[in-house]
Write a structure and sequence with these properties.
The protein is 25% helix and 12% strand. The chain is built from 6 helices and 7 strands, in the order H-H-E-H-E-E-E-E-H-E-H-E-H. Helix 3 links the parallel strand 1 and strand 2 (109-112). Residues 63-269 form the Peptidase M12A domain.
C-alpha cells in the first residue's frame, strides 16, 4: 500500500479520535476532569490593588487602581449599534443577550447612544478575515471607539469577550504574571498573531488579587493563533496550562472570576457571583 493511501486512512482516524471529542467537552470540564487525583497546581500570590482595603468594601476607591480613567462613568457603557438592524434582528438580540449577562451579575449598565461624547460603536468586520472580533482600546478610551465583530462569527461568546475588553478586562494570556500559569510557545504562533500574546506591563493593568482564570471568557483557546490546520494546532498549540500540560478550548460563558473582577473594578456592591 502506498504512503498516500496509508495517510488517507490514518489521518482521518487520528482526527476523529483526538480532535472531534474535544469539541464536545467544555474547557472547564477538560481542565477540571483531567486533573482529578493529581497534585494541586502551585499557588502564587497575586498583587491586589485593593489589598489594604480588601476587608472594607466601603473604602475601595478608584485612586487605588491603575489607569482608573478607563472605567466608564457611573458604570454606564454608552453604545451605538445602528449597523445590525436593532431592535429585531438576530444580531441585535444576540448583542442584547450578551449585555444582559453583565447587567444581571454586576452594576454595569448599557445605554444606547443619544449624542454622548464617549461611546462604543459596533462595526461589522468583513467575513473574509480570520479575526472574530476586536475592541479599540481597553476600557473607556474617550470619544468614539470601535467594537468590532466578524459578521460570520456573530456569536454571543465573541461579543462577551469583546465587551469584556470594553469594560476593562484583559486577555488572560497577556497577564503580566501569566508565565506562572501557562507556557507560551512563540515558535508555534503565526507571526501576525504574536502581538496577541504580548504581556501587559504591570503598571497598565489591575490584577486585583485574582489568579489566572482557566474558565474566563477572556482566555483564548490553546490553538488560537497557532500555525497550521486544526489538527496541527492541537499538536503544536500556542500555549498550554503549565500545571498539567493541558490544551484548553474556547470558553463560551462568563466565569465567576470575570464577574468578580468587573465588580471590583466598578466597586459594585451586593453582586458577587453568577
Amino acid at each position: 500500500m502506498s504512503r498516500a493511501a496509508v495517510a488517507a486512512i490514518i489521518y482521518p482516524i487520528l482526527f476523529i479520535l483526538c480532535v472531534v471529542p474535544l469539541f464536545f467537552v467544555p474547557a472547564s470540564a477538560l481542565f477540571g476532569g483531567l486533573t482529578r487525583g493529581k497534585s494541586a497546581p502551585p499557588q502564587f500570590k497575586v498583587e491586589d490593588e485593593y489589598e489594604t482595603v480588601r476587608g472594607h468594601p466601603e473604602k475601595r476607591s478608584k485612586k487605588f487602581l491603575n489607569n482608573k480613567e478607563m472605567l466608564w462613568k457611573s458604570a454606564v457603557v454608552i453604545y451605538k449599534a445602528s449597523t445590525i438592524g436593532c431592535p429585531s434582528s438576530f444580531q441585535c438580540l444576540t448583542l442584547m443577550d450578551a449585555m444582559s449577562k453583565f447587567s444581571q451579575n454586576t452594576c454595569v449598565r448599557f445605554k444606547e447612544w443619544t449624542g454622548e461624547t464617549d461611546y462604543v460603536d459596533l462595526v461589522l468586520i468583513d467575513s473574509s478575515t480570520e479575526i472574530l472580533g476586536g475592541a479599540e482600546g481597553l476600557g473607556r478610551k474617550g470619544g468614539k471607539q470601535l467594537f468590532m465583530i466578524n459578521k460570520e462569527t456573530f456569536h454571543e461568546f465573541v461579543i462577551l469577550h469583546e465587551l469584556g475588553h470594553v469594560l476593562g478586562l484583559i486577555d488572560e494570556v497577556r497577564r503580566p504574571d501569566r508565565d506562572n500559569f501557562i507556557d507560551v510557545f512563540p515558535n508555534n504562533i503565526r507571526p501576525d498573531q504574536r502581538h496577541f500574546f504580548q504581556k501587559h506591563n504591570r503598571t497598565d493593568v489591575n490584577l486585583l488579587g485574582k489568579p489566572f482564570d482557566h474558565e474566563s471568557i477572556m482566555l483564548y483557546a490553546s490553538g488560537a493563533g497557532a500555525k497550521g490546520g486544526i489538527l496541527w494546532r492541537h499538536i503544536q498549540p500556542a500555549y498550554k496550562s503549565k500545571s498539567h500540560g493541558l490544551i484548553l478550548l474556547q470558553n463560551l460563558h462568563l466565569s465567576h472570576g470575570d464577574i468578580h473582577t468587573i465588580n471590583d473594578l466598578y466597586r459594585c456592591r451586593g453582586k458577587s457571583h453568577i
